[in-house]
User: Which sequence fits this backbone?
């Protein structure tokens, strides 16, 4: 039901999420990069749908698609950071995707321009 979020759980937010940033916040900000406009738009739609769920359902879906616990206070990597709730985490992810320049423009942007 959430294929784009599952893709993020297998990459940006997977077991090796620290390869996508030095902190969880950097991994979130970098999540839209390297994906096409269609992926980003689908992710925004999935995130909006997910955030409309109850906290119980949001928790259930999150554990199914994420490779990490964004609410855990982890020791490695140091200063990784965490979120007070899964809703706060997914809201931050939605914000990153909604504010991506391509999503805001509604078209792909040539990185060489």
Assistant:
């Amino acid at each position: 039901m959430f294929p784009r979020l599952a893709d993020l759980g297998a990459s940006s937010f997977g077991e090796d999420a620290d390869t996508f940033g030095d902190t969880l916040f950097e991994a979130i900000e970098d999540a839209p990069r390297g994906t096409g406009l269609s992926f980003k738009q689908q992710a925004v739609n999935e995130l909006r749908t997910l955030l409309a769920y109850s906290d119980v359902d949001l928790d259930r879906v999150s554990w199914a698609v994420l490779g990490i616990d964004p609410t855990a206070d982890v020791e490695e990597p140091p200063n990784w950071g965490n979120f007070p709730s899964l809703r706060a985490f997914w809201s931050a992810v939605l914000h990153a995707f909604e504010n991506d320049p391509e999503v805001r423009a509604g078209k792909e942007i040539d990185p060489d321009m």
In short: The helical segments are 3-10, 24-30, 37-51, 55-65, 86-98, 101-105. The radius of gyration is 14 Å.
